[in-house]
Write a structure and sequence with these properties.
CATH class of the largest domain: Alpha Beta
Number of strands: 23
Strand order of the largest sheet: 19-20-18-17-21-22-16-23
Number of domains: 5
Strand content: 15-25%
CATH topology of the largest domain: Beta-Lactamase
Distance between the termini: 133 Å
Number of helices: 21
Oligomer: single chain
Radius of gyration: 53 Å
Shape: rod-shaped
Length: 704
């Protein structure tokens, strides 16, 4: 369909304007003529309606054709204006061209002139419209570029990727006449494209609940390929999702590794080159903004990490200073009470922690023995709660796992609801529990209360773990020193019928009584036991049949009994005795029931020791308890053990328990060397050295 052309014909001769208009309409169906009899009327008509061309006579009253042209050009410099006049001369034609008329035509006779006029009008209007459209296109392009420029600033100012996606979709909707605009962000963790932003015109396509997975349609294909693609008609493509039917043509632009921008038109091949170029420019700007936002996010995260690390380092430096002060105080303490008091006072005296207290492992449930920074009312509350106290459960967990345990927020932690009032009153939320133990024994737990949630970092926990070991060794050292100075032990006689006990298994196997003449420690994983059995008993098969017996050999054979050397792996009983510094004085088993006499330091709680043995050997019962006092002989043993090396002490023990010093000798040096896994010369060397120190101490050192 040809677009109509509205022509305003101006002529002061009555009826002539209507005639010209009618002739023009006859020549061109597209022309619609409007008549005016003077310039003033023409200007009035022009003010009320759009006109594509003006055809005017020259000589008219009040205002000539040139004057009308001047008035029209003031508002519309390019509107086609044809001077159609009966006055003709080269001078007038030259003047008309100089005045800026589009065409000049002299009136004549016949209808040919109207055909020529219609042709001039049609050509002039076509050129005018083309130039107008070009100018409008240029203005639109300039506006679009201005919008893109402003968008670029907005993109670069955006602080989050989500905001960048929103700005990009809003801009595409503003500068393009399209039905669909949506942005998808790639989520590396899930490996999908998730909805990031969309315009109101495309709600279904930008459904937040719809994610695009691997090989899931055109959008994923373009994103994975990394190259933009234009589909003139998406309905011709394979595997097109129903959601894509909102648009017939689509331009899909990947935004690097960040995501993808989708723009769709409702028409087939609805994008021209300019639109495609604009979307690519927008996509490039959005990708650059996303790169910038990602870098800034990484920098912010890096800054936060550095800030946290600096804060943690500052805190650790302060904690290390506190620990050094504690270690210095512990080194000067001579009793366990002094050690515990020093620890609690130093921790509570800092601005880092609210208060601290120590729970002993000797009591059940665990209860406070020393505290600082908190009043006795809080301690009484813990004791009154007994087994229900959350602190007691924390202490037991710490001792059972032998690691530092932390309650990050007592206001939300399970089982700590009964401490809500106390936590708010005393101003703490984090509770740290540290096991106090050395390599062999657990002495209790140190509990430290701090304000804030999760206020104890990993580095601080490691420092406290090392502090707990240091305290454990310090307690062990002062208690051994006190026991040595005080002298005296407790003698416990136990009865055990548990079949796990190696001695009971031996008596049941032989159906004869079995006694332990002595035990020599060969480290934490190996022990040598000198076992006496009635003559004729054969234990040779045990080495291959029992996993607990690594080596077995005969030390001596007498008329009534045979002495065997058994190298055994560590057992639960030996582990407990080693932990509590307990010695076996005597052990005999008859018919699967053993009677064991233990020598226990006074510092060791008998109840705790017996319970530890029962854990491994249920059915163990206390038969007798006897107090012993300090004697010169006992102090002599202590000094002798302190002077001998481990190998010298083992050599002397093995010789004594195996009857090496009896006459006639019940064992030889070669037998004992083999039992201890050393060469005979080496064994004799250690034994001679031990004998020399024993004699020196007897005749010289101890007498002094």
């Amino acid at each position: 369909m040809v677009e109509s052309i509205t022509v305003l014909v101006v002529d002061n001769e009555p009826g002539y304007a209507e005639l010209v208009g009618a002739m023009l309409e006859r020549e061109r169906e597209s022309i619609v003529a409007v008549a005016a009899t003077d310039a003033a009327e023409a200007l009035g008509i022009r003010a009320k309606r759009d006109v594509d061309c003006i055809v005017s006579d020259y000589e008219m009253p009040e205002m000539t054709g040139f004057e009308l042209l001047e008035r029209v050009r003031e508002r519309e410099p390019k509107l086609p204006f044809v001077l159609f006049t009966g006055r003709g001369s080269e001078e007038l034609a030259s003047e008309a061209i100089a005045a800026g008329v589009t065409q000049y035509l002299q009136k004549g006779n016949g209808t040919e002139q109207y055909a020529l006029l219609a042709n001039q009008i049609t050509n002039a209007v076509s050129q005018y419209r083309a130039e107008t459209e070009l100018r409008e296109s240029e203005r639109r392009y300039e506006r679009t570029l201005t919008t893109l420029h402003e968008t670029t600033r907005d993109l670069m100012r955006a602080e989050t990727k989500r905001e960048i996606y929103r700005v990009a979709t809003d801009t595409a909707t503003e500068i393009l006449d399209v039905q669909v605009v949506a942005a998808y962000a790639f989520e590396p963790a899930d490996g999908v494209l998730e909805h990031a932003a969309s315009t109101g015109a495309s709600p279904a396509f930008g459904d937040p609940d719809v994610a695009i997975g691997r090989n899931d349609g055109l959008v994923w294909d373009v994103f994975s390929a990394g190259e933009s693609a234009y589909y003139e008609d998406v309905m011709r493509e394979d595997d097109v999702e129903a959601v894509q039917q909102l648009s017939r043509s689509e331009l899909i632009v990947p935004l690097g590794t960040h995501g993808v921008l989708v723009v769709g038109s409702g028409a087939v091949d609805g994008f021209d080159e300019t639109m495609i170029e604009l979307v690519h420019v927008l996509g490039a700007n959005a990708e650059a903004a996303l790169d910038r936002a990602e870098r800034e996010q990484l920098l912010r995260e890096h800054d936060r990490t550095l800030a946290r690390q600096n804060e943690e380092l500052t805190r650790l430096n302060r904690v290390n200073e506190i620990v050094r002060e504690i270690n210095h105080g512990v080194a000067q303490a001579t009793t366990r009470d002094a050690i515990e008091t020093t620890i609690c006072d130093r921790l509570a005296g800092t601005d880092r922690y609210r208060f601290a207290w120590i729970a002993s492992s000797d009591a059940e449930p665990p209860e406070p023995t020393s505290w600082a920074g908190v009043d006795a009312a809080y301690i009484d509350r813990i004791r009154d709660d007994g087994d229900d106290a959350p602190e007691g459960r924390l202490v037991r967990e710490t001792l059972d796992t032998e690691r530092v345990c932390v309650v990050e927020n007592v206001l939300e932690a399970d089982g700590w609801d009964r401490r809500r009032t106390e936590a708010l009153t005393y101003g703490y939320q984090t509770v740290l529990a540290v096991p106090l133990a050395d390599d062999e024994r657990r002495y209790g737990a140190l509990l430290v209360h701090a304000d804030g949630v999760n206020a104890i970092g990993d580095g601080e926990r490691e420092v406290f773990a090392e502090l707990g070991e240091t305290i454990g060794h310090a307690i062990r050292s002062v208690e051994r020193t006190r026991a040595t100075r005080a002298g005296g032990t407790i003698e416990l006689e136990l009865a055990c019928d548990n079949s796990r006990l190696l001695l009971n298994r031996l008596s049941e196997r032989l159906e004869k009584p079995v006694s332990v003449a002595g035990v020599v420690e060969r480290g934490a994983d190996e022990t040598i036991a000198f076992v006496s059995v009635p003559a004729g008993a054969d234990l040779a098969a045990l080495e291959s049949e029992w996993a607990s017996v690594e080596r077995l050999s005969v030390i001596s054979e007498g008329e009534d009994e045979t002495l065997f050397e058994l190298t055994v792996t560590s057992t639960p009983l030996l582990d407990v005795l080693r932990t509590y510094d307990v010695r076996v004085r005597a052990a005999t088993s008859r018919a699967g029931t053993a009677t064991i006499t233990l020598e226990v330091p006074r510092r060791v709680g008998a109840r705790s020791l017996i319970e530890s043995i029962r854990d491994g050997f249920p059915g163990t019962e206390l038969e007798a308890r006897r107090e012993t006092t300090s004697t010169p002989a006992r102090r002599f043993d202590t000094q002798l053990e302190e002077r001998l090396t481990d190998k010298q002490f083992q050599a002397l023990q093995a010789a004594y328990y195996s009857g090496f010093f009896e006459w006639p000798r019940e064992s030889t040096g070669e037998d004992l060397a083999d039992a201890l896994g050393v060469s005979p010369p080496t064994y004799h060397y250690h034994l001679r050295a031990a004998e020399r120190k024993l004699v020196t101490l007897s005749f010289d050192g101890f007498s002094n």
